Hints:
The structure holds two protein chains of two kinds.
Chain A: H1 8-16, H2 22-36, E1 41-44, H3 46-56, E2 69-73, H4 100-107, E3 111-116, H5 150-157, E4 163-168, H6 174-180, E5 183-186, E6 206-211, H7 214-224, E7 254-258, H8 268-284, E8 287-291, H9 299-314, H10 333-344, H11 347-359, H12 364-389, E9 392-396, H13 414-417, H14 423-428, E10 432-440, E11 443-451, H15 456-469
Parallel strand pairs in A: 2-3, 2-4, 7-8, 7-9
Antiparallel strand pairs in A: 1-3, 4-6, 5-6, 5-10, 9-11, 10-11
Helix pairs in contact in A: 2-3, 9-11, 9-12
Chain B: H1 4-13, H2 20-37, H3 72-76, E1 82-83, E2 86-87
Amino acid sequence: MRYLDLDIKTINEKLKNKEIKPIDLVNEAFDRIEETNLNCFITLNKEDAIKKAKELEDKEVDNILFGLPIAIKDNIVTKDLRTTAASHILEDFIPIYDATVITKIKEKNMIIIGKTNMDEFAMGSTGETSYFGNTLNPIDNTLVPGGSSSGSAACVATGITPFSLGTDTGGSIRQPSSFCGLVGLKPTYGRVSRYGVIAFASSLDQVGPITRNVYENALLLNVISGQDKNDLTSSNKEVKDYTSLIGKDITNLKIAVPNYYMSEVIDKTVREKIINIINLLKEKGCQVDYVDIDYLEYAIPLYQVIALGEASSNLARYDGIRYGLKVDDFKNVDELYKNTRNIGFGNEVKRRIMIGSYILSGENANVYYYKALKLRKEMTDSFVSVLSKYDLIIGPTNTDVAYKLGTKQDDALKSFYDDLLTIPVNMAGLPALSLPVGYKNNLPVGMHIIGNYFEEDKIYQLASYIENNLKEEK
Amino acid sequence: MISEEKVKHIADLAKLNVTSEEMSKYQQQLTDILTEIDKILKVDIKNEEIMISPSNNRNCYSEDVIESHISKSDALKNAKRVKGDYIIVPKVIE
């Protein structure tokens, strides 16, 4: 029997009554990594994890996450543990401090197993832009696991760790969670500190939990949330107990379904799964209405301006001087920059930096960026208006299920269109979760639950009801 | 399709090189994305309000106290060429 396959409450009991020790869990995690071979990790933290587990043997089991293994996406910095963002340009980068989320999970004595594979700088929707090779989908190794948090999702789906942290700029937690049949949450912008997260698009990025079930997701959100003096966009709103509404009656919840999320663009089977849920909720007595949210059809070009503009600025720091890759072939400083970045960045990243630099240059900033900021405000207002009348918004997370590795690699627009339904949420800064709600040809279908600002507890309330009441066979 | 000159200009802005073998690929891909982006120019928006970030936080200042942050050795730890307390860089003035 594997202890890591048990639910967290049971593992916690066994740790408390000394039936098992943290080292047993750590050993199981590393055994599973060798058995599965999905290329989930860029760097393993084996020696340190074993040391930490041994140290914990003398400590009191003082919280429910004590001694549990966790995997961390490799764009979250970890002191003295290599952090690459899956890029050649940071291949040998050793951070000198811990991200705030890392400090928080260490305070709870969780054990970091390793740094997970991902799309380079979180730019991609399949895991395939990693400098360190594809992550494989644990359900079918010929398929993509989704991305950009590819390794964080594959690792939990295959049972290496019960918990992982991902980041989500346009869908990078929800999309792979959906493809791997997991629960993944992008918190409200500002709920979780971004300090120590390698920046992609600073007004969109959030760290969030990827887990096997709803309750365990809320447990991890409880730990990583909160204001941080090192991230001035983090919110001073009180950190709730995000498990507190789980199991509470949902009859009075009012739920909106955007027409855009159920259009012909979405795979028919995926839509059917969502309709099953709508029927389940109506039977329970919830009010469920179809609504329009304005400007959603412009989410992708809007994202391209905002995200790539911010990315070009954020990635200007990779200059071959203070850290990261440095080439020896240069005659002047301009060549040092260009030659380093040319070798250091992959194609997807280069393309995105180029677009971002261009749309922010000269008069373009007024034409594109300023227009995008106005559009962002309008789209957000449209979400806010719906959420003033409804508690939650539901729909599919993705347009379809996981697809073959190597599909349309040369299509510059593909990775953006994969995030068609997830991007608008980042634009508005709202919290959203992906929940598995059935299968299409044995592949998991994810449902999207979008909440109002700082109402992650209500998202978990609905998600938990569906998790417990949906009877779906493969 | 955008011109080779424009691709070179964009690459220069981004401090990247585009080789002649890559040129036609980048012409196509950048054109595809820029065409997509042009869609937002056609949207009619009456409201002048903008949104830069979802955060509503006001600017705030830290207490003016001396604290230790990063040590010199940590600051230089990931630099490739270091001499004493300095990072060696190419000459930037003539």
